[in-house]
Structure formats: C-alpha cells, structure tokens
Fold this sequence. Notes:
The protein is mainly β. It has one domain. The protein is 6% helix and 39% strand. The chain has one helix at residues 57-60, and strands at residues 2-9, 14-24, 35-41. A 3-stranded antiparallel sheet has the order 1-2-3. A hairpin with a 4-residue loop joins strand 1 (2-9) and strand 2 (14-24). The model has no long low-confidence stretch (mean pLDDT 96).
Amino acid sequence: MEKQFFGFCPAQGADYGITVEYINKTSLSDTRPVYEMGLATCRYNMFGDKCNANDCPILSKVPRTL
Length: 66
C-alpha cells in the first residue's frame, strides 16, 4: 500500500509531499491488518544530492506502522 504525506520542506522552502510504501506484515494471529513502513520516495531528492533524508521533517512525522 502506498500513502502520501505532506508538510513543509525547508530545502525547497515550500510545502511538498513524499510517497511511502507500506508492507503488509499481517500474521494469522493478528485481528487487523498490520503494515510496516518500507521505501519512502521523494522526487525532489531522488538522487540524494539536494538534502539529507535523515533531517527531513516530513519523513520524521511518517508513522512507522499502520
């Protein structure tokens, strides 16, 4: 499952959105679906040379599990 998250990007000085892929980690004992964060995609920093993903305020607010 993919979800988009939006917030202010200080590298661009504007609001921006990133896409996060969630991986289904549901087991037979779970009573509801469990998803864990997988790959996050930022088209602005696609090649990793515009900013540091570890300092991304949008990515820092993304839930690790759903």
